[in-house]
Amino acid sequence: GQNIDQPTEMTATEGAIVQINCTYQTSGFNGLFWYQQHAGEAPTFLSYNVLDGLEEKGRFSSFLSRSKGYSYLLLKELQMKDSASYLCALMDSNYQLIWGAGTKLIIKP
Amino acid sequence: ETGVTQTPRHLVMGMTNKKSLKCEQHLGHNAMYWYKQSAKKPLELMFVYNFKEQTENNSVPSRFSPECPNSSHLFLHLHTLQPEDSALYLCASSQLRDSHTGELFFGEGSRLTVL
To answer: Does the beta-carbon distance from A101 to B90 stay under 8 Å?
Structure first.
Protein backbone atom coordinates (compact mmCIF):
# COMPACT_ATOMS: atom_id res chain seq x y z
CA GLY A 1 0.00 0.00 0.00
CA GLN A 2 0.88 3.64 0.11
CA ASN A 3 1.52 5.65 3.23
CA ILE A 4 2.88 9.08 4.06
CA ASP A 5 3.97 10.25 7.49
CA GLN A 6 4.86 13.71 8.68
CA PRO A 7 4.85 15.27 12.15
CA THR A 8 1.57 16.79 13.24
CA GLU A 9 3.01 19.97 14.67
CA MET A 10 6.36 21.72 15.06
CA THR A 11 7.46 24.90 16.79
CA ALA A 12 10.41 27.07 15.82
CA THR A 13 11.81 30.50 16.55
CA GLU A 14 11.82 33.50 14.23
CA GLY A 15 15.15 33.74 12.41
CA ALA A 16 16.02 30.09 12.98
CA ILE A 17 16.02 27.06 10.67
CA VAL A 18 13.47 24.24 10.72
CA GLN A 19 13.34 20.92 8.91
CA ILE A 20 10.02 19.21 8.29
CA ASN A 21 10.36 15.53 7.48
CA CYS A 22 8.16 13.35 5.34
CA THR A 23 8.54 9.60 4.99
CA TYR A 24 6.61 7.49 2.57
CA GLN A 25 6.00 3.97 1.35
CA THR A 26 4.86 3.35 -2.19
CA SER A 27 5.14 0.81 -4.97
CA GLY A 28 5.30 3.47 -7.69
CA PHE A 29 6.82 6.94 -7.61
CA ASN A 30 6.53 9.94 -9.90
CA GLY A 31 7.63 12.72 -7.63
CA LEU A 32 7.15 14.34 -4.26
CA PHE A 33 5.53 17.70 -3.63
CA TRP A 34 5.39 20.21 -0.82
CA TYR A 35 2.54 22.65 -0.43
CA GLN A 36 2.04 25.47 2.05
CA GLN A 37 -1.36 26.27 3.50
CA HIS A 38 -1.98 29.28 5.70
CA ALA A 39 -4.99 29.02 7.98
CA GLY A 40 -8.17 29.74 6.03
CA GLU A 41 -6.33 29.95 2.73
CA ALA A 42 -5.68 27.79 -0.31
CA PRO A 43 -2.76 25.36 -0.37
CA THR A 44 -0.03 26.72 -2.63
CA PHE A 45 2.72 24.81 -4.41
CA LEU A 46 6.21 25.07 -2.92
CA SER A 47 8.38 22.41 -4.52
CA TYR A 48 8.60 19.26 -6.60
CA ASN A 49 11.35 16.63 -6.41
CA VAL A 50 11.58 13.63 -8.68
CA LEU A 51 15.33 12.97 -8.52
CA ASP A 52 17.45 12.49 -5.41
CA GLY A 53 19.05 15.56 -3.97
CA LEU A 54 18.40 19.05 -2.79
CA GLU A 55 16.35 21.66 -4.63
CA GLU A 56 16.84 25.19 -3.36
CA LYS A 57 14.39 27.99 -3.86
CA GLY A 58 15.23 31.07 -1.84
CA ARG A 59 14.74 30.47 1.86
CA PHE A 60 13.07 27.12 1.17
CA SER A 61 14.81 23.90 0.11
CA SER A 62 13.44 20.42 -0.45
CA PHE A 63 15.37 17.19 -0.32
CA LEU A 64 14.54 13.74 -1.63
CA SER A 65 16.00 10.28 -1.12
CA ARG A 66 14.02 7.75 -3.13
CA SER A 67 15.92 4.75 -1.75
CA LYS A 68 15.04 5.78 1.80
CA GLY A 69 11.49 6.93 1.04
CA TYR A 70 12.31 10.24 2.66
CA SER A 71 11.96 13.91 1.96
CA TYR A 72 12.34 17.06 3.98
CA LEU A 73 11.46 20.69 3.60
CA LEU A 74 14.04 23.07 5.03
CA LEU A 75 13.02 26.59 5.91
CA LYS A 76 15.77 29.11 6.70
CA GLU A 77 15.65 32.56 8.30
CA LEU A 78 12.17 31.87 9.59
CA GLN A 79 9.66 34.67 9.48
CA MET A 80 6.37 34.95 11.32
CA LYS A 81 4.55 34.63 7.99
CA ASP A 82 5.97 31.11 7.65
CA SER A 83 3.49 29.95 10.29
CA ALA A 84 1.33 27.61 8.26
CA SER A 85 0.65 23.97 7.56
CA TYR A 86 3.05 22.19 5.22
CA LEU A 87 1.62 19.34 3.18
CA CYS A 88 3.73 16.56 1.74
CA ALA A 89 2.25 14.71 -1.26
CA LEU A 90 3.48 11.76 -3.26
CA MET A 91 2.63 11.23 -6.92
CA ASP A 92 2.16 7.52 -7.50
CA SER A 93 2.57 5.44 -10.63
CA ASN A 94 -0.95 6.46 -11.78
CA TYR A 95 -0.07 10.15 -11.38
CA GLN A 96 -2.42 10.41 -8.43
CA LEU A 97 -1.39 12.58 -5.51
CA ILE A 98 -1.33 10.82 -2.14
CA TRP A 99 -1.32 13.38 0.66
CA GLY A 100 0.12 13.45 4.14
CA ALA A 101 -1.96 14.93 6.96
CA GLY A 102 0.20 18.05 7.08
CA THR A 103 2.57 19.58 9.59
CA LYS A 104 1.42 22.68 11.42
CA LEU A 105 4.42 24.97 11.90
CA ILE A 106 4.23 27.54 14.67
CA ILE A 107 6.78 30.34 14.64
CA LYS A 108 7.48 32.14 17.90
CA PRO A 109 9.17 35.53 18.23
CA GLU B 1 -5.13 35.07 -5.62
CA THR B 2 -4.56 31.64 -7.13
CA GLY B 3 -6.86 32.00 -10.14
CA VAL B 4 -9.36 29.55 -8.63
CA THR B 5 -12.44 31.05 -6.99
CA GLN B 6 -14.84 29.16 -4.77
CA THR B 7 -18.25 30.25 -3.50
CA PRO B 8 -19.64 30.33 -0.94
CA ARG B 9 -16.73 30.53 1.47
CA HIS B 10 -18.92 29.39 4.34
CA LEU B 11 -22.10 27.32 4.30
CA VAL B 12 -24.27 26.02 7.10
CA MET B 13 -26.99 23.58 6.15
CA GLY B 14 -29.39 21.16 7.71
CA MET B 15 -29.39 17.50 6.82
CA THR B 16 -32.47 17.87 4.64
CA ASN B 17 -31.26 20.89 2.68
CA LYS B 18 -29.99 21.00 -0.88
CA LYS B 19 -27.14 23.35 -1.68
CA SER B 20 -24.36 23.70 -4.21
CA LEU B 21 -20.71 24.69 -4.09
CA LYS B 22 -19.26 26.52 -7.06
CA CYS B 23 -15.73 26.68 -8.40
CA GLU B 24 -14.39 28.75 -11.27
CA GLN B 25 -10.84 28.79 -12.61
CA HIS B 26 -9.35 31.55 -14.75
CA LEU B 27 -6.14 29.72 -15.64
CA GLY B 28 -7.13 27.96 -18.85
CA HIS B 29 -6.63 24.58 -17.22
CA ASN B 30 -8.24 21.39 -18.45
CA ALA B 31 -8.48 19.35 -15.26
CA MET B 32 -10.51 20.20 -12.17
CA TYR B 33 -10.81 18.45 -8.83
CA TRP B 34 -12.87 18.35 -5.66
CA TYR B 35 -11.07 17.55 -2.43
CA LYS B 36 -12.36 17.16 1.12
CA GLN B 37 -10.12 18.48 3.91
CA SER B 38 -10.88 17.47 7.49
CA ALA B 39 -8.85 18.56 10.50
CA LYS B 40 -5.62 16.60 10.93
CA LYS B 41 -6.44 14.28 8.05
CA PRO B 42 -4.90 14.03 4.58
CA LEU B 43 -6.66 15.65 1.68
CA GLU B 44 -9.21 13.25 0.24
CA LEU B 45 -9.71 13.32 -3.50
CA MET B 46 -13.41 13.14 -4.33
CA PHE B 47 -13.83 13.77 -8.03
CA VAL B 48 -11.68 14.55 -11.05
CA TYR B 49 -12.74 16.05 -14.37
CA ASN B 50 -10.45 16.11 -17.37
CA PHE B 51 -11.66 18.07 -20.39
CA LYS B 52 -15.15 18.15 -18.80
CA GLU B 53 -15.29 14.37 -18.49
CA GLN B 54 -15.39 12.76 -15.07
CA THR B 55 -12.41 10.47 -14.83
CA GLU B 56 -12.50 9.55 -11.16
CA ASN B 57 -15.03 9.10 -8.40
CA ASN B 58 -13.26 7.89 -5.32
CA SER B 59 -16.14 5.99 -3.72
CA VAL B 60 -17.89 9.18 -2.77
CA PRO B 61 -21.45 8.81 -1.39
CA SER B 62 -24.21 9.72 -3.81
CA ARG B 63 -25.31 12.61 -1.60
CA PHE B 64 -22.42 14.45 -3.29
CA SER B 65 -23.07 15.07 -6.97
CA PRO B 66 -20.50 16.85 -9.16
CA GLU B 67 -21.20 18.77 -12.33
CA CYS B 68 -18.72 20.19 -14.82
CA PRO B 69 -20.48 22.18 -17.57
CA ASN B 70 -17.19 23.39 -19.08
CA SER B 71 -13.48 23.36 -18.36
CA SER B 72 -13.69 26.52 -16.27
CA HIS B 73 -16.56 25.68 -13.95
CA LEU B 74 -17.15 22.92 -11.44
CA PHE B 75 -20.03 22.40 -9.06
CA LEU B 76 -20.63 20.12 -6.12
CA HIS B 77 -24.31 19.56 -5.41
CA LEU B 78 -25.12 18.58 -1.86
CA HIS B 79 -28.24 16.90 -0.53
CA THR B 80 -29.23 15.01 2.60
CA LEU B 81 -25.76 15.40 4.07
CA GLN B 82 -24.63 14.01 7.41
CA PRO B 83 -22.87 15.88 10.23
CA GLU B 84 -19.65 13.97 9.43
CA ASP B 85 -19.63 15.67 6.03
CA SER B 86 -18.73 18.92 7.77
CA ALA B 87 -15.32 19.87 6.38
CA LEU B 88 -13.46 22.24 4.10
CA TYR B 89 -14.15 21.45 0.45
CA LEU B 90 -11.34 22.49 -1.83
CA CYS B 91 -11.50 22.89 -5.57
CA ALA B 92 -8.30 22.66 -7.59
CA SER B 93 -7.24 22.79 -11.21
CA SER B 94 -4.22 21.73 -13.23
CA GLN B 95 -3.13 22.03 -16.83
CA LEU B 96 -3.67 18.34 -17.47
CA ARG B 97 -4.95 15.44 -15.37
CA ASP B 98 -1.84 13.31 -15.79
CA SER B 99 0.58 16.14 -15.53
CA HIS B 100 4.14 15.15 -14.91
CA THR B 101 4.66 18.19 -12.76
CA GLY B 102 1.41 17.61 -10.88
CA GLU B 103 1.14 21.17 -9.70
CA LEU B 104 -2.35 21.95 -8.50
CA PHE B 105 -3.87 25.38 -8.07
CA PHE B 106 -6.34 25.44 -5.22
CA GLY B 107 -9.21 27.69 -4.32
CA GLU B 108 -9.56 28.91 -0.75
CA GLY B 109 -12.26 26.39 -0.03
CA SER B 110 -15.86 26.29 1.10
CA ARG B 111 -16.23 25.64 4.82
CA LEU B 112 -19.29 23.42 5.18
CA THR B 113 -21.10 22.80 8.46
CA VAL B 114 -23.92 20.27 8.54
CA LEU B 115 -26.25 20.57 11.51
So the answer is: no
Sign (positive or negative) of CA dihedral B22, A87, B95, B26: positive
CA-based nearest distance B24→chain A, Å: 14
Radius of gyration of chain B (CA): 13
CA nearest to A95 within chain B: B98
Task: Give the model's pLDDT for residue B89.
Answer: 97
**DSSP state for residue B51 in the 8-state scheme:** T
Interfacial B residues in 32-61 facing A (CB < 8 Å): 40-43, 45
- CA gyration radius for chain A? 13
Across the range A49-71, mean pLDDT stands at: 96
Average pLDDT of A86-101? Answer: 91
Mean pLDDT (whole number) for B48-76: 90
- What was the pLDDT predicted at B101? 62
With CB atoms and an 8 Å threshold, state whether A42 touches B90: yes
Q: Pick from A15, A11, A12, A26: which is nearest to A88 by CA?
A: A26
Contacts of residue A96, defined as CB under 8 A and 6 or more positions apart, other chains included, come to B45
